């Protein structure tokens, strides 16, 4: 195993106050910077520098789909690993006091138990070391970079031969290490706050009070007892907040003035720390300003949570994902969407497997916002609960028409907020239940066999591997329409409240598949972040018109408020039905012996705002169109 020292995404700006050392480890090609040392006292790892390409070339293990870091692991599990250390060059702190070290880090960046790393200081050239900080990792699934700021302590004040050391010990387990980046050693200003981030819901309903939270780190020498923070949308909202932030510590500070707007707007809020401890901040260049976008919605939107689970028939732990997926779909049928993304078996869709980038199996991406996270029933439920009530800018929908297996999928997204410069895209995933096969590639490896690993949805009673004849695979992602990243140009860049973006995708059902077992999953993707903003799943056969030439219809005005007209050419008996997005019928009308052009007006003033499906049906044929009620 090798621990990596690699390029991160956070960079602490240099202080104007006595910076002693700064190192970003760029362009080193695997070597350590001059004066830095690494050690592995017995068997085990060492620190390595480089980006993902260099690390992968050296047979390291990539994680999280990142381009700025990777993790090496010579043996994924049952590894005999030991302590690894990373040490700075000697530093002369003559005339300095209260010196701190700041660094970015990732702990346990692939799999294994959550283990701490330690920071120590030596004032005698490495002869003796004093621990000054221990970071206890709490979530091995969180692969994001974070920042620590650690005071070196009084013993380092004025010392002439000071070194800082990072220690990571996997304690003989299969944990896979520590990544460190952007190290800065400096004497800070006495009253110095750093605005490391701003938390604010991007999407919120009009007339809703939303709290803006400033993420603040005390990078000064004194405790911070008060902060003056301003958020500005053209109007200044300056407030003084009492806090208690020790040197090196961080805190989330809520601004007393809630963010709220009475209409659907997009606002770019500038956030500034304008004073620290009642006076000017000691270093105004040190991350005192941030900005964040905030949009208000003209009506409530409904979010679905999408979990794309990386799995494979070769993976003995992957039955855990299938059991978790079945539980979530049964428990949350309307706003949970699950897709099994297969790897290395006959059900693999290369574009999907490659796009998802899951490197550890079973693993999962949640809304493509949480990447490479752990898989279990409890974990899936926790991800779902954390995200299902998030605001989203648009509702999405799909209608399916076609015959003979040739399908047209009309995907749409209805926005309820303006977006001045968006990069949204529509995409469609086709999933299939009841997939079977006869070759050995459909045998499912099963480490739960025999019950030694506890109950697992019945797999404990099955063989290892489970023979193909006994396996049926559900939720299998079998097609990507518009590509993994979505269809470019399917959503306009400039969006107004009420914009309906739509795109038609074509799909031919394979002869080996049954359209009755297939689902259409419409995704609205933010291409700027890669995240799934919202999604909707419908059965392939919902809205399917086996005789599309029999009906040509138009629904207008759309959006509608009081009445809607349904126009179509008729020859016989017809039923016009309006259903809401949960499938509840809100209006149905039958008409007999119609002939020729029809223009039937239906009242909709009593319907709540939202999306509905208007269906015109006759003698087994039907056609659907989405109706928006404002």
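Q: What amino acid sequence fits the structure above?
A:
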């Amino acid at each position: 195993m090798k621990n990596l020292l690699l390029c991160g995404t956070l960079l602490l700006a240099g202080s104007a106050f006595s910076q002693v050392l700064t190192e970003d480890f760029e362009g080193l090609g695997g070597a350590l910077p001059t004066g830095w040392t690494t050690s592995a006292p017995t068997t085990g790892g060492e620190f390595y520098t480089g980006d993902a390409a260099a690390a992968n070339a050296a047979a390291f293990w990539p994680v999280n789909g990142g381009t700025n870091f990777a993790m090496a692991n010579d043996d994924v599990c049952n590894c005999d690993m030991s302590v690894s250390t990373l040490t700075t060059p000697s530093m002369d702190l003559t005339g300095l006091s209260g010196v701190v070290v700041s660094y970015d880090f990732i702990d346990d960046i692939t799999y294994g138990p959550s283990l701490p790393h330690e920071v120590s200081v030596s004032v005698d050239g490495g002869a003796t070391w004093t621990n000054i900080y221990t970071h206890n990792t709490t979530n091995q699934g969180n692969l994001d970079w974070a920042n620590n700021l650690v005071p070196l302590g009084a013993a380092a004040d004025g010392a002439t031969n000071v070194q800082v050391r990072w220690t990571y010990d996997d304690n003989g387990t299969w944990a896979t290490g520590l990544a460190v980046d952007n190290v800065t050693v400096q004497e800070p200003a006495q009253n110095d706050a750093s605005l490391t981030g701003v938390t604010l819901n991007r999407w919120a309903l009009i007339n809703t009070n939303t709290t803006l939270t400033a993420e603040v780190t005390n990078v000064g020498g004194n405790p911070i007892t008060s902060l003056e923070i301003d958020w500005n949308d053209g109007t200044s909202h300056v407030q003084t907040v009492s806090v208690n932030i020790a040197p090196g510590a961080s805190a989330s500070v809520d601004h007393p003035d809630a963010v709220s707007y009475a209409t659907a707007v997009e606002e770019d809020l500038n956030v500034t720390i304008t004073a620290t401890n009642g006076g000017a901040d000691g270093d105004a260049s040190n991350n005192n300003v941030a900005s964040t976008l905030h949009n208000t919605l003209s009506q409530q939107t409904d979010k679905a949570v999408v979990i794309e689970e990386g799995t494979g028939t070769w993976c003995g732990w992957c039955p855990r994902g299938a059991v978790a997926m079945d539980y979530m779909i049964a428990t949350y049928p309307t706003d949970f969407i699950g897709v099994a993304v297969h790897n290395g078996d006959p059900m693999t869709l290369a574009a999907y497997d490659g796009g998802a980038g899951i490197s550890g199996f079973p693993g999962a991406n949640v809304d493509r916002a949480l990447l490479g996270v752990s898989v279990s029933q409890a974990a899936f439920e926790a991800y779902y609960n954390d995200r299902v009530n998030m605001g989203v800018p648009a509702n999405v929908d799909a209608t399916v028409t076609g015959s003979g297996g040739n399908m047209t999928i009309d995907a749409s997204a209805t926005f309820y907020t303006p977006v001045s410069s968006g990069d949204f895209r529509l995409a469609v995933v086709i999933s299939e239940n009841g997939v079977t096969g006869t070759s050995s590639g459909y045998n499912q490896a099963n480490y739960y066999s025999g019950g030694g690993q506890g109950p697992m949805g019945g797999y404990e009673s099955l063989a290892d591997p489970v023979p193909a004849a006994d396996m049926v695979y559900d939720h299998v992602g079998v097609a990507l329409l518009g590509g993994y990243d979505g269809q470019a140009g399917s959503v306009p860049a400039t969006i107004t409240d009420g914009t309906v973006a739509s795109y038609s995708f074509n799909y031919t059902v394979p002869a080996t598949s049954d359209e009755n077992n297939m689902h259409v999953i419409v995704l609205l993707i933010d291409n700027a972040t890669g995240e799934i903003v919202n999604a909707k799943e419908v059965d392939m056969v919902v809205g399917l018109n086996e005789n599309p030439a029999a009906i040509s219809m138009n629904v207008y005005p759309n959006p509608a408020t009081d009445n809607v007209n349904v126009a179509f050419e008729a020859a016989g008996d017809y039923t016009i039905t309006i259903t809401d997005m949960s499938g509840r019928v809100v209006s149905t009308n039958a008409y007999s012996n119609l002939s020729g052009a029809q223009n039937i007006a239906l009242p909709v003033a009593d319907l709540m705002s939202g999306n509905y499906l208007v269906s015109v049906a006759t003698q087994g044929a039907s056609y659907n169109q989405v109706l928006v009620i404002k």
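Q: And what stands out in the fold?
A: The helical segments are 52-57, 319-331, 350-356, 377-387.
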